[in-house]
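Sharing in case it's useful to others searching the archive later.

Someone asked me privately for the predicted structure of Thioredoxin domain-containing protein, so I'm posting the question and my answer publicly. Question first, with the sequence:
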Amino acid sequence: MNRLGGATSPYLLQHADNPVDWFPWGDEAFDEARSRGVPLLISVGYSACHWCHVMAHESFEDPATARMMNELFVSIKVDREERPDVDAVYMGATQAMTGQGGWPMTVFATPEGAPFYAGTYFPRARFQQLLQGISQAWREDREAVVAQGATVVAALNERAGLPPGATPAAPVLEAAVRNLAESFDPRRGGFGGAPKFPPSMVLEFLLRHGTTDALAMAEKTMDAMARGGVYDQLAGGFARYSVDAGWVVPHFEKMLYDNALLLRVYTHWWRSTGSVLARRIALETADWLLREMRTPEGGFASALDADSAGPDGTHGEGLFYVWTPEQLRDVLGDDDGAWASSLFEVTGTFEHGTSVLQLLADPDDAARFDRVRTALLTARDKRTRPGRDDKVVASWNGLAVSALAEAGALFDRPDLVGAARAAAVLLDDLHAAPDSPVNSTAGSTPDTGPVRLRRTSRDGRAGANAGVLEDYANVAEGFLTLYGVTGETRWFRRAGGLLETLLTRFPDGSGGFFDSPDDGERLFQRPQDPTDNATPSGQFAAAGALLSYAALTGSARHREAAEAALGAVSVLAAKYARFAGWGLAVTESTLNGPVEVAVVGPADDPRTKALHRAALMSGAPGLVVALGPGGTADVPLLEGRGLVGGEPAAYVCRGFACRAPVTTPAELRAQLSA
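And my answer, the predicted structure tokens:
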């Protein structure tokens, strides 16, 4: 009996028809393993994962392999995106036992959940041998196997977390830049060798740091990514990573979190330098998000698959995206086809004579390029599209809200701000609920008080899994950014409720934060990872949101919590700066104040709008903007600050100590640049 048919996770639903007797994560599976006296087989992956699909086709869809799994184990299928806490603790075990990690992740555990053997992808023959070997060891020497699990758990708990560090100061940031320079690739951009992942959080830090060396590393990397195959040159949007060191061949899955983070970084690059390339990539990525990733409910889907079907019906990685010279000529004709082959570097860079499109040089004929790209995109749209994981993840939608709100404001695109607001409404109405024992179901929240989040939703239905630290932090950050763009105090209040829960449910007692709440499910280890991965660490994201809220409210409690959470930056910066990018970026904000700007005036007054835009165009690290009629107690930064001579005004402050108000954008820009 496969129990995945009622899941809200598209990944679990992909396995609902397997001959494996899958259980979802939960007490039923653990009780079954104890009742039968067999180990657990925990398989963790996500819907856009190529090698997860390979192992599914080879093993989980194979009746003989499924029989072995059903007879010898209780098998649990976990969507890592729905249960990042489960993924985190078992990934720590996998890395400790094997020296590496990845997905699919395959873990064998006792009926109590203690891991004793782990790996990632196994080919079918090897997997069948492993099933037999593990089962034999369990039957013949169970005490030793259980002891091994206990030893692994003890070792993981002993080395959990990072030692607390001092609040970072300017020398820590300078050491981080030197450390990043050691692994920087000056020819191809990025850090380290293959595979190369978009270093989104590091790029944000380098832009905020602003020194010549920092900007050179950031600009080289962003230029190379934008021109390489890791960026979709036809439709926009970035792939998960490049399998090579030159950004040529991507791993073709497209993730919401990568594109939200990179949209924001490219927007900030344009704001800092006026780069034409930065503007184009930011707007194309934003348009791709709206076109490809929006759900009917107004949120954003999690991912597009790496795999799709080719013309002959076979499935493979990247088939939707790659081209041959012959295919280009078929669509464009001989002349434009040859021109496009040269322009897009169609020289057999991928498999079977196909190529991933690159754009290493700007086209010499813009009108011709637009015509060619439109024709190719129209032809590509007739291919079988990759699958879409349409669940809405709170954290990643929070990142999208921040990015789209800022891009919409800076590029004068009200539709992007509207999309950000629609996603925020979905998060607030569906994912959020008051933190009250009387009402713990998802639904609309009151104006004030602590708020709880559900991690995911799908088709307008909230999932059962509780939000984790990154959900609270990134949604709060998104709401605060949206408030700064729209002046709607709803989002300021909602962010305060989320941060109240963050401060009461997640602290570790030494200045950091656990990744799961204090009343969450008890795993063999309470997850806590202060380092960045594909997204900002929950701890550093929390620090950023807390700092912004403190700047809008003057709250010492929130500021002190943010600074304490940044102690991990001091531990990581000199040797492991690549894993502390968001913490480094937030530290730049703390050292800069951050700058607070209160813009006071009627929302529909052009003079108010001009002051507001001048404030948002400032590249001051971590700058926060309060927008409203003034004199209101809704947002403390606006309280007591009004019009000047009947005109809209802007107040530039640090720590609520403000300079004389100004009434023109030029005066405001002068104060912000001083």
